[in-house]
Amino acid sequence: MDSIAPKQSPLEDLTVLDLTVALAGPVATLLLAGLGARVIKIENPASGDPSRDNAPYFGLGGVKLARERADDISVTAYNRLRNKLGVTLNLKHPSAREVFADLARKADLVVENFTPGTLDELGVGYEAARRANPRIVYGSISGFGSDAGPGSPKALDTVIQALSGIMYVSGAENDPPVRVGLTIADLTAALFGVIGVLAAVHQARRTGVGQHVDVSMLGALTAFIAGEAYEAMEKCGEPVRTGQTVQRLAPFGIYPAKDGHLAVCAYTDTFAHQLFEIMGRSELAKDERFRTRDARVRHYRPLDAEISQWTSFQTTAQAIAELNATGIPAAEVRDPKAAVHDPRVVARNETVPMVHPKYGAADGVYAMGLPIRFSEAVAGFDQPPPGLGEHNQRVYGEILGYDANRIAELRARGVI
């Protein structure tokens, strides 16, 4: 009888050096780890990744705003550091360059998101990595790209949102700029970073030559802005900001209900006319303002007023049941807690319970899962964040082959 080989992880033959901090870089390497790569998280031995000290925390007694015990884990760190091997290396120490070179020889790629030029000055930038390993792929995520000129502002997510234009496509027409609640600039850059480094690794395995992959947060987010028709609509005399409505697909937006809000997406003529029937307003299908999509785009304001008048007298459950029965896409507007506990996403491990290695589940609080499923591979997160330097012996001793005396010397000199 034929034996069935165990499923492998897609990236289990990939070794990644993680020189990241903050959000965009750590999320990129988290995704690589979830896909099975061996990710070696390099932290400063004196302080570790700043996310380790981000409130809230969880541990004995559940979730808390202040760290009460040494083994309390930051929720932020849990979301960003899982499934990584944790080592310490003081990149400011001159001897760190030699250790980094040894790590680079064992690696397929490096991911970092420091201010451009910082790691070059420390002797662990792309050129140093390439000298150690010509096949290395070196991924850099920064606010404005590695070629950004001097004087660029610090690339925090809100700064990038402000510059990208996204704050002026959210909110109603006369609202002040609206910051998107999610750190969308960081997360968008992380996704493009992963796509970029995996493409470069594929090329390196074909050609034997690595390269530098350069992703900017501003470019990543602004590219998506340019992918919508905002500028074209403005040239046609229409507003860019349309509040709860996607004007070019009207009716398509968020509407009030007796007990909350619902999203209704009746973007075709068929859907729109079915919606009018459900509303008891079938005559609207013959109204020249609403009969065709082009007409509805021009008259989206009175159309939204008609729909809001109907939905405001419905419960979300009533309205959604009627709409979905005819195939019109509709859903309740949920808060984050309800969303991350959705049985559909939980069953697919797209959100996962936070589990402390000592104390178990954290009061039903959920963390980011890996929203990709493979038919012939395993992927996801099954390891908690490593302690600071937890895997020094494994990485420096077993992978690099340093003996006990050398590891002790590096530790004594403050290198690791």
Notes on the structure:
With 416 residues, the protein is an alpha/beta fold. It has 17 helices and 14 strands. The protein has helices at residues 24-34, 75-81, 96-105, 118-121, 126-132, 157-164, 184-207, 217-226, 230-235, 269-278, 293-298, 300-311, 316-325, 336-340, 343-347, 392-399, 404-412, and strands at residues 15-19, 38-43, 57-59, 62-64, 73-74, 84-88, 109-112, 137-142, 211-216, 252-257, 260-265, 330-332, 351-356, 360-368. The strands form four sheets. A six-stranded parallel β-sheet has the order 6-2-1-7-8-9, with helices on both faces. The chain has a three-stranded antiparallel β-sheet with strand order 4-3-5. A hairpin with a 3-residue loop joins strand 13 (351-356) and strand 14 (360-368). The longest helix has 24 residues, at 184-207. The chain is elongated. The relative contact order is 0.14.
What's the helix and strand layout?
Layout: E1 15-19, H1 24-34, E2 38-43, E3 57-59, E4 62-64, E5 73-74, H2 75-81, E6 84-88, H3 96-105, E7 109-112, H4 118-121, H5 126-132, E8 137-142, H6 157-164, H7 184-207, E9 211-216, H8 217-226, H9 230-235, E10 252-257, E11 260-265, H10 269-278, H11 293-298, H12 300-311, H13 316-325, E12 330-332, H14 336-340, H15 343-347, E13 351-356, E14 360-368, H16 392-399, H17 404-412
Parallel strand pairs: 1-2, 1-7, 2-6, 7-8, 8-9
Antiparallel strand pairs: 3-4, 3-5, 10-11, 11-12, 13-14
Helix pairs in contact: 1-7, 3-5, 6-8, 7-8
Question: How many extended strands?
Answer: 14
Low-confidence stretches: none
Mean pLDDT: 95
Structural class: alpha/beta
Count of helix runs: 17
The helix content is 25-40%
Beta-strand content bin: 15-25%
Query: What distance separates the N and C termini?
Result: 51 Å
Strand order of the largest sheet: 6-2-1-7-8-9
Largest sheet: 6 strands, parallel
The radius of gyration is: 26 Å
Give the overall form. elongated
